[in-house]
Amino acid sequence: MKTKPENKTDQIFLMALAQDILKTEHSKKTIELEFVDVRYGTCEEKTDFHCRITIPLWAKTRRTESYLYSYLIHEVTHVIVGGCHMHDRYFKAKETKLLKEYMGITQVHYSRAYVKKLIRNGQVIYDRGY
Q: What is the pTM of this model?
């Protein structure tokens, strides 16, 4: 698991984390990250080398920071795998790998496209509950 600074919900840290993931995955893309008042996050490719990720404001207030990190990783996974893998097995395998590497997650439960429960070393760190 990568080391995180004290202010984990800081937008600058999240941008750095996203950029670090992209660099590790050999992507030359840069990102623009914005919190917006919407229902779902997005990942828009602006050019071959730049994309814009939006994360809903409500994701910052979810019961745990782990959800915010997993949301960011979800959107970054879209950048890595491309548009042809919309929440399929390949997408979820890549997202699960990144959750393990960057958050130390040992088990992921999905509800359709999105994370339902995150487990780290036997301890539930996020559970949507429905």
A: 0.84
